[in-house]
Write a structure and sequence with these properties.
The complex is a heterodimer of chains A (893) and B (448). By secondary structure, chain A is α/β, with parallel strands linked by helices. Helix content of chain A is 29%, strand content 18%. Chain A has 5 domains: 3-115, Ubiquitin-like (UB roll); 121-137 and 147-295, 2-Layer Sandwich (Alpha-Beta Plaits), CATH 3.30.70; 304-372 and 531-700, Rossmann fold; 379-415 and 425-525, no CATH class; 725-892, Barwin-like endoglucanases (Beta Barrel), CATH 2.40.40. Chain B has 448 residues and is α/β, with parallel strands linked by helices. Chain B folds into 3 domains: 22-243, Rossmann fold (3-Layer(aba) Sandwich); 253-335, Ubiquitin-like (UB roll), CATH 3.10.20.600; 340-441, NADH-ubiquinone oxidoreductase 51kDa subunit, iron-sulphur binding domain (de novo design (two linked rop proteins), Up-down Bundle), CATH 1.20.1440. Chain B contains 18 helices and 9 strands. Chain B has helices at residues 2-12, 34-39, 44-51, 54-64, 76-81, 107-113, 115-128, 143-158, 189-196, 210-213, 225-243, 276-282, 316-321, 340-354, 360-377, 383-396, 403-430, 438-441; strands at 92-97, 133-138, 174-179, 220-224, 253-260, 266-271, 292-296, 305-306, 330-335. Chain B has a 5-stranded mixed β-sheet. In chain B, a hairpin with a 5-residue loop joins strand 5 and strand 6 (266-271). Chain B is globular. Classes of the chains: A alpha/beta (893), B alpha/beta (448). Chains A and B meet through helix 3 of A and helix 14, helix 15 and helix 16 of B.
């Protein structure tokens, strides 16, 4: 931006206007602004702040509040009335007079402010927004000292729950429509809308239709008054009593910048940080609201060792715990060896400590952070195409926005990486990006990225390429010609989700598509620590910074830098997670060192349980009780994200560093605990602090050797599942049983209800009535869920991965692409009209009333456990399996 | 009412400055039927129009100087000319028949008495603007009128005046009659478009203007009923004939809707520029001879006039020069029995009820001003209230999102301008008096 005083030197007169710019004058200051820029922004760049409420730089202009009125002259002619600077684009020769130089603008602004206040309650002293309220601040700056309004204010009942989390105070609302516009334009969840008119106009929801959105918390943050508050934070604290610390979200791999507000050692709330490169100004509700796991009552504060006599864990000193752990690990190492399972939620620094601990202290490559279904093909893909990439060369958020075409492969953006989802919507809505999906059914996330509601008719922005679960690789190998052609346009992107690992040949097929079309592949794992861990060296094939363990030269270099003897690191790749567990179960491995891992997340939870029981010695670094600590011989408490520093690498490979938010709790990061444990084992890791680790990682430098080759696994095509059977499709909801969502009942209330989805054809074949549940079973167990018919291939059933009782991994021992038995279940009580219930149930279930009673009550029970009942409090951690722990992947956060 | 008085119109046509053009058929038997319409030159203009080039029609309307009859008076031909010539997107013609302005009662009688003139106008205008879809957005409360329109549209379809290949011209047009849901704001053209799209009716940000992105983001022209119904006459009569009526900048005939304290309220079609004095003469003078006190030239959104304005020429320029607006030529005429603050209060209550709520000044301003006026009329006002009212009006006028807010302050500012003493008297009565005597105060300023 160039600024020159109009009255100042005359060389400014001769200065050419840059290409694509116009020259205008604001309050006597000459300024060049890009064409199309709104006057309010140009003014702001000059330091002239025009007051506003409805204006938001990331939302379409509305011009509704009229607070930003200024006087404008175009072509030497004054406009007949003050104009809203938030809707007026700059023009050449325009003369703008804001409240600073125009009495008319100043009076107009004071007038609007007075009007806004006549119906606004004077409850600032008890309002959550008081102290950080744009209305309060601007009223003090641009308002009248006294009100002339002596009549009756409009009143409403308040607050109104528009979801289990969001509360609406209609009296405080200034009807700026930021919340409704956000929900419509950004999130694509238009579940709040203006109702009524005139002074009775208000924000509201449809009947029986709560504000169900994964992004609802953003409306609180952009509300310029205290009209929208969260049940979690309402009346909890005053903004001026809080300390604000910048942070990074620990939930998914989006890498959102956040602001954590805390006091007296306790986090009170989290807000979206402003980071245009990553999350812009948004957060998902999980990132915003799910943080109380760190202060759960059952959090470990002291080390625990298993008492030999009672078999129970008892609290002990760090000295004893570390000695017991070191002795146990040393003897396990020297008998059969120890496998290391760090889990996918660590910072890069903590992950590095696990990887180094495995190689240096345990002398093994048996380390794998992938606490989820995984494959060797994925391992090869990560080594060949992911490690070492970063935002400078790889796919980024900005890259998505500018891409002509994006193909989401086995990736459910809204559920798995909500900020990527928002960016996909923005790309489709503003840039005309085509968004295609390869999946089974038109989930809300698919719909909202392929059909964008806008002014006029919706924009059709892409297609869902429907396929059977497991068939993705085959379909990707033979893409429709048009999609293939679109992917050839430079800048196109392939987004690969972690579900790819469950589909043999899919990573290979994706690499071939990338090769063929030039589209850039990007891997978007679900968990925040996965991308960093790939870099930090917690895979059985990779040392830090993508150095292949099987490359002797590279290995020797690492050994030298780590001060090890030559040959200290085994030259063969280690076992993957499933292999480690199998080896432990068979007694080949003697011990396990486990970080944040929930056995129920693993590909085979039963095998994990057997392995934990079979191991001679198990050390768990944990935050809260889990399926691992139940079996562990030593439990060492570690710090949650908010009590440590470190770096998450987001899916782009972008380093997201953060400092300690809550100091002085005494909690130690994993890297520090491992460092001390190593010392007990007479090994130096030099990972005392995350900063020390970061330094060492930088000194190690990038992989000097060759990149491993990409995988080449043939694409498979699933066979027909057979009579009474179906192929299982499954992925997780954003809000589910995950242990990092513990202690957040209000958040849990906004989760999507778990239902089984089938096609109309499948429903017909099963003889399923509209209100009838579906029973899915395997040799392991069975699940009964309410059904919903959607457009999807026949003989497929979709289940949520970890919602309520729907935990196919745990209950059915089945994953995406597995064959399951499927049958019509009982008639659902909640969906059936009372009068028709008997008739329908009787028709479908001639077995008799008693039988029906039983199934109905069981269903009702399941329904409650799913956390759908508004009265239901702590959903997470209520059952034995849900009693997960934090800082771990627990229950599949 | 309208038909009875149209009779008056007919009877006096020979001796008075009436120009029955649009109202010409109103008294014929079953004037709304296709048969009557065809007997009286109906659909003859359409044949002429379809033989012409679309752009010739736009030029003709421009040359005739036809101006929008919905209130703003924008030259219709110029508006049509904003429509793109290419057909890359569908074009729409939307008829604003959401007649809701207090006092305005011209479009509903027109559609009741002569719906085919509107339909013929629609076909010609749609042809000129290369639109194959036309929507008539009718005020939902006017159910009888909606039924009559539906009937007329059906008749026109079966006679081949609508549908595919109209009169073998190769031109197709579908007309949809759409009932509004009872919101004054939906008379604002962009709110009307949102409402037509099935959305909440609130005005849109302009630009883009409807000619660029209107209904379903496609090129759209929104015209008033009376404007479009005038088009067949312009086509048949020609620009010069049309310009033989009215004044240079405001040519043509206009339906003046007289209501209130006159002997014979109703529709009087006269050239633009006719004065109230002339119109009153046609309407038999003030009712019972009680003198005129104040009147609106074009509905409640146009500032009041008084007896001093009897000779103001009622055309777009004349009304503006005299400090008001022509609006919809809905002349509400009040005699000396009416309290100005009371009438202003009633109008303000209307605007408070109808403000759509989108923008702050109109939403909150109307809410506030209505309360102040109610308080004043109850005798609990103060002189400060008068200044506050004027200042709030100043903060609403020209500060609102659309013209609704501007209209809302018109009765207040003009009422205080001409009748400040009446408002002050209400405050006087408040001084040291029992303020519970509301009934007395409500009559302040009323001649007894």
């Amino acid at each position: 931006m160039t600024v020159a005083s109009a009255s100042g030197n005359d060389t400014a007169e001769n200065r050419p206007v840059p290409e694509g710019h116009v020259r205008l004058t604001i309050d006597g200051i000459e300024v060049d602004a890009p064409k199309g820029e709104l006057v309010i922004r140009t003014a702001e760049r000059l330091g002239i702040v025009v007051p506003r409420f409805c204006d938001h730089p990331l939302l379409d202009p509305a011009g509704a509040c009229r607070q930003c009125l200024v006087e404008i002259e175009v072509n030497g002619k004054p406009m007949p009335k003050p104009a809203a600077s938030c809707t007026m684009a700059v023009a050449d020769g325009m003369v703008v007079r804001t409240q600073q130089t125009s009495a008319v603008a100043d009076k107009a602004q004071q007038g609007v402010m007075e009007l806004l206040l006549i119906n606004h309650p004077l409850d600032c002293p008890i309002c959550d927004k008081g102290g950080e309220c744009p209305l309060q601040n601007q009223a003090l700056k641009h308002g009248r000292a006294d009100s002339r309004f002596v009549d009756k204010k409009r009143t409403f009942a308040k607050p109104v729950s528009i979801s289990s989390q969001i509360l609406l105070d209609r009296e405080r609302c200034v009807l700026c429509q930021r919340c409704t516009r956000f929900s419509k334009q950004i999130a694509g969840d238009p579940f709040i809308e203006l109702l009524e008119r005139g002074a009775l106009q208000q924000i509201g929801t449809g009947e029986q239709q709560p504000f169900q959105s994964y992004f609802s918390g953003n409306t609180i943050q952009i509300c310029p008054v205290g009209a929208l508050t969260s049940a979690a934070y309402r009346f909890r604290s005053r903004p001026f009593d809080l300390v604000s610390t910048p942070g990074v979200c620990e939930h998914c791999s989006a890498g959102c910048s956040q602001r954590t507000d805390w006091r007296r050692g306790k986090v009170m709330r989290r807000l979206a940080g402003d980071d245009p490169e990553v999350n812009e100004e948004w957060n998902c509700d999980k990132g915003r609201f799910a943080f109380r796991y760190a202060t759960a009552a059952d959090r470990f504060t002291r080390p625990l060792v298993r008492d030999r006599d009672s078999g129970r864990l008892r609290e002990t000193s760090w000295t004893e715990a570390l000695r017991v752990a070191a002795d146990g690990l040393l003897s396990a190492r020297d008998s059969g060896g120890v496998g290391v399972l760090p889990g996918g939620r660590l910072t890069r620094e903590d992950a590095y400590a696990y990887g180094k601990f495995a190689r240096v202290a345990l002398r093994t490559n048996d380390v794998d952070h992938r606490a989820r279904p995984h494959s060797t093909e994925e391992l090869d893909f990560l080594g060949a195409a992911v490690v070492g990439t970063g935002p400078d060369a790889g796919v980024t958020y900005a890259g998505i926005e500018s891409a002509p075409t994006v193909l989401c492969v086995a990736f459910e953006p809204e559920e798995e990486s909500p900020i990527v989802f928002l960016r996909l919507r923005k790309a489709a809505r503003n840039e005309g990006t085509r968004i295609h999906h390869l999946g089974q059914w038109g989930s809300p996330g698919v719909e909202k990225t392929t059909e964008i509601a806008d002014a006029g008719s919706p924009i059709h922005s892409g297609e869902l390429l429907r396929c059977l679960p497991g068939e993705e690789a085959a379909v990707l190998s033979e893409l429709p010609e048009e999609v293939e052609r679109e992917l050839r346009e430079p800048g196109s992107v392939l987004l690969l989700g972690e579900r790819c690992a469950q589909i043999p040949g899919l990573y290979s097929a994706a690499m071939r598509v990338a090769e063929r079309t030039g589209a850039s592949p990007a891997w978007i794992p679900r968990r925040a620590g996965e991308r960093g861990a790939v870099e930090a060296g917690t895979l059985p094939t990779l040392l830090p910074n993508g150095r292949p363990v099987s490359d002797s030269v590279v290995r020797a270099d690492v050994e030298r830098q780590w001060g090890m003897d030559e040959g200290g690191i085994p030259g063969l790749p280690g076992k993957e997670l499933e292999g480690i567990l199998a080896a432990t179960e068979s007694g080949e491995l003697s011990g396990l060192l486990v970080g944040g891992v929930d056995p129920d997340d693993l590909p085979d939870p039963e095998q994990a349980g057997r392995a934990l029981r079979a191991a001679d010695f198990v050390v768990s670094l944990e935050l809260r009780p889990s399926g691992v600590t139940e079996r562990a011989d030593v439990v060492l408490p570690v710090a949650p994200t908010v009590e440590k520093s470190g770096t998450f690498l987001n899916w782009e490979g972008r380093a997201r560093e953060f400092e300690i938010t809550i100091e002085g709790t005494g909690a130690l990061p994993d890297c520090r605990v491992l460092d001390t444990l190593a010392v007990e084992m007479d090994v130096d890791l030099f990972t005392q602090t995350p900063a020390a680790v970061a330094g060492e990682l930088a000194r190690l430098g990038p992989n000097p050797g060759a990149r491993p080759k990409p995988p080449d696994v043939p694409a498979a095509r699933p066979g027909s599942p057979g009579e009474g059977r179906a192929l299982l499709a499954t992925w997780r909801h954003l809000l589910d049983n995950g242990s990092l969502q513990a202690e957040e009942p209000n958040l849990a209330g906004t989760a999507r209800p778990p239902v089984a989805r089938i096609s109309a054809g499948t429903a017909r074949r099963l003889g399923l009535a509209a209100d009838q549940a579906v029973r899915v079973s395997t040799a392991h167990g069975e699940l009964t869920l309410e059904s919903e018919v959607v457009e999807m291939p026949d003989d497929v059933v979709w289940l949520p991965g970890n919602s309520g009782s729907a935990r196919p991994n745990r209950v059915l021992g089945a994953g995406h692409g597995s064959v399951v038995d499927i049958a019509a279940g009982p008639v659902s009580p909640s969906r059936t009209a009372p009068s028709g219930a008997d008739e329908v149930a009787g028709a479908e279930n001639p077995a008799g009333a008693a039988d029906r009673e039983g199934t109905v009550s069981a269903l009702a029970h399941a329904h409650r456990a799913n956390g759908n009942g508004p009265e239901h409090g702590g959903v997470n951690g209520s059952g034995p399996a849900g009693a997960g722990r934090a800082d771990t992947d627990g229950g599949g956060a | 009412m309208s038909e009875a008085n149209a009779h008056e119109v007919e009877g006096r046509a020979a001796t008075n400055p009436l120009t029955p053009v649009l109202t010409r058929r109103w008294l014929s038997p079953e004037s709304w039927s296709l048969r009557t319409y065809e007997e009286l030159e109906g659909y003859t203009a359409l044949r002429t129009a379809l033989a012409a080039h679309p752009d010739q029609l736009t030029e003709l309307v421009k040359a005739a100087g036809l101006r929008g009859r919905g209130g703003a008076g924008f030259p219709s031909g110029v508006k049509w000319g904003f429509m793109p010539k290419d057909r890359s997107k569908p074009h729409y013609l939307v008829i604003n028949a959401d007649e809701g302005e207090p006092g305005t009662c011209k479009d509903v009688p027109l559609m009741m008495a002569d719906p085919h003139s509107l339909i013929e106008g629609c076909v010609i205008a749609a042809y000129a603007m290369r639109a194959n879809h036309c929507m008539i957005y009718v005020r939902g409360e006017a159910l009888h009128c909606i039924r009559r329109l539906h009937h007329a549209v059906r008749e026109a379809y079966s006679a081949g005046y609508l549908g595919e290949n109209i009169l073998d011209s190769g031109f197709d047009l579908d007309v949809v009659v759409h009932a509004g849901a009872g919101a004054y704001i939906c008379g604002e053209e962009t709110a009307l478009l949102d409402s037509l799209e099935g959305k909440r009716g609130q005005p849109r940000l302009k630009p883009p203007f409807p000619a660029q992105a209107g209904l379903y983001s496609c090129p759209t022209t929104v015209n008033n009923v009376e404007t479009i119904a005038s088009v067949p006459y312009v086509v048949n009569g020609g620009a010069d004939w049309f310009r033989s009526m009215g004044r240079e900048k405001s040519p043509g005939p206009k339906i003046f809707s007289l209501s209130g304290h006159v002997e014979r309220p109703g529709q009087y079609e006269a050239p633009l520029g006719t004065t109230l004095r002339e119109l009153l003469e046609l309407a038999g003078g003030m009712k019972d001879g009680i003198p005129l006190k104040f009147w609106t030239p074009g509905g409640s959104s146009t500032p009041l006039f008084t007896a001093d304005h009897l000779d103001v020429p009622l055309d777009f320029e004349g009304a503006t020069e005299a400090g008001s607006m022509l609006g919809t030529t809905a002349l509400m005429i009040f005699n000396e029995t009416v309290s100005v603050p009371w009438a202003v209060m009633k109008w303000t209550q209307f605007y408070e009820h109808e403000s759509c709520g989108k923008c702050t000044p109109c939403r909150e301003g109307c809410f506030w001003m209505a309360q102040v006026l109610e308080r004043m009329v109850e005798g609990r006002g103060t002189e400060e209230d008068i200044d506050t009212l004027l200042d709030v009006c100043d903060n609403v006028l020209g500060r609102s999102f659309c013209a609704l807010g501007d209209g809302a302050v018109s009765p207040i500012t003009s009422g205080i301008k001409y009748f400040r003493e009446e408002f002050r008297a209400l405050c006087e009565s408040n001084r040291g008096q029992d303020t519970t005597e509301a009934s007395e105060s409500a009559l302040a300023g009323v001649a007894r």
